[in-house]
Amino acid sequence: MPATDDFTVTPYAVEGNIDYDRLLDEFGADPLTADQKAQFPRPVHQLVRRGVFYAERDVDAFLDAANEGKTHSIVTGRGPSGPMHIGHIIPFYFAKYLQDQTGCLVYIPLSDDEKYLLKDKPLAEIHEYTRENLLDILAVGFDPERTRIVVDTADADVVYPLAVAFAKEVTQSTVNATYGDPENIGLSFYPAVQAAHLLLPQLVEGRHPTLVPIAVDQDPHVRVCRDIAAKQRYDVSKPGALLSKFLPALEGPGKMSSSGGSANIRLSDDRETVFEKIRTHAYSGGQRSVESHREHGGDPEVDVPYQFLYYFFEESDERVERLAREYRDGSLLSGELKEIAATRIADFLDAHQSRREELGPVADEFEQYRLRKSERQTARQQVGYANTRLFEERTTHDN
Q1: DSSP secondary-structure letter at 218?
Q2: pTM of the model
């Protein structure tokens, strides 16, 4: 795993100023090309056309299936260890965009078990975060007919059997080489659970291209899963990946985090809180004085409010380019740029929060997105388990 004097990127820790090109060399992924970007559905999402999603594995198979109207799926999940912030929710809105444009299946695993193994938090607290995170994901507005949400502990009847099958394909030396020495045996086993997440759409729907849009630190999970699929013991293709850069921390640089005491913008923040956080904490690329800024201009490449707009919160390329130009020539001040970014983010959160408030009880909302009984049986059968209906009939008869 990349850990240098300059930065660290693992599935469990991201620190420092990230060299994204060096990560490609370390991970063996390919840059996302202009031709590939052009194959995404129109209008091409700003995360793709601006290079926030900057690298890929086997994205062509997914794009071909999407453009030809064939079965294709997205897998993007959440580790519920705390309240969600804006960086957490962006991949889900991207998945919703693809579902709206291409009709793709979307599978969303919530790895509550992993967060218990990784964090010093009780199960009850993780459970409550899972419920709250689930409501935020439901507020995105996925099509329940084409979306399945899996909570590891609630759906252990399908996740665990699949993970057991895949665990036999992964050695401890592979886990150690990919993740470092695990802190406990649960984390040693967890790559098999991740493989169950990533291969589940194909085990339910049949062999087809699956794409995993994730931040680049999560790529090790994809690599281990692709190794399992490559052994061809199961009727699945290697899942593809779309790797993104990190939404920067408010204080810049690095990755926005929900831990370590750093400031972040939560999905529950009201407008006043958003403006206060941007004004107080957002790292500026401007000069120390108005006079100096008018003369020398600012640097949008390091300015966090501008980066928020560029990454996701300003859809118009013309406007985002104009803001960068005006910031560089000094006609747009840092305070003014902060106000623009805060307004865009607050508007986004207002809409998100309104949709969340319109949801019914979480149990009722969640039910329509859960795997059907037949889908659970199909998935288990695809990795070699017997038809569980026979067991259920025998149990009923015995009782």
Answers
A1: G
A2: 0.92
